[in-house]
Amino acid sequence: MNKYELAVVVSAKLEDDARTAVVEKVKSLIARVGGTVTSVDEWGKKLLAYEIQKTNEGYYYFIKFTSKPEAPVALEPEMRIVDGVLRYLILKDEGIEQAAEVAEQPEA
Predict the structure, then answer these.
(1) Sign for the pseudo-dihedral over CA of 79, 84, 87, 89
(2) How much is the pLDDT for 103?
(3) Model's pTM, two decimal places?
(4) N or C: lower Cβ tally within 10 Å for the chain?
(5) Radius of gyration (C-alpha) of the chain in whole angstroms
(6) Are 92 and 33 in contact (CB under 8 A)?
(7) How many Å apart are CA 58 and CA 88, to the nearest integer?
(8) Alpha helices by DSSP H, the chain
(9) What is the number of alpha carbons within 13 Å of residue 72 lying toward its C-beta?
(10) Domain spanning 2-104, CATH class
(11) What does the alpha-carbon distance between residue 93 and residue 8 come to, in Å, rounded to a whole number?
(12) Domain segments of the chain: what residues?
């Protein structure tokens, strides 16, 4: 099982209940593709770097989950059609050990 982090920007135009429903739907999509959510980190409302769908602000959520390597590929098309999600990004969590290995490699 690999560790992943899903960054989700939810529209600021949604009410609190609708925003919570969007996050719950994303969590259920992760479960549907065989993943297990380990943590959800809410960063709150932030100003976007550029306007998306006539919106300048969005709520940022970072969802950490574990799954098989093919799960992120299956999750991508599902994320595209979730109402209220402005942007998303799935990253593989390499961990501290692998980051330390990269830092120790000499420069060429």
Answers:
(1) negative
(2) 59
(3) 0.83
(4) C
(5) 16
(6) no
(7) 12
(8) 16-32, 71-80, 95-104
(9) 18
(10) alpha beta
(11) 16
(12) 2-104
Check: CB of residue 86 under 8 Å from CB of residue 45. Answer: no
C-alpha to C-alpha distance for 7 and 90, rounded to whole angstroms: 6
DSSP of 54-80: TEEEEEEEEEEEEE-TTHHHHHHHHHH
Name the residue type at position 33: V
CA angle centred on 47, ends 14 and 9, rounded to 5°: 50
Q: Please give the helix or strand (H or E) that residue 49 lies within, else none.
A: strand 36-52
d(CA 20, CA 25): 9
Whether 2 shows a pLDDT value over 70: the answer reads yes
> Which residue, chain included where needed, has tokens 């982090």?
5
**Could you report the per-residue pLDDT of 43-102, keeping only the tens digit for each?**
999 999 999 989 999 999 999 999 999 999 999 999 999 999 999 999 998 875 555 565
Q: What pLDDT sits at residue 64? A: 96
Token pair for residue 96? 């501290």
Residues forming beta bridges with residue 37, ordered by sequence position: 65
CA 99 to chain centre: 20
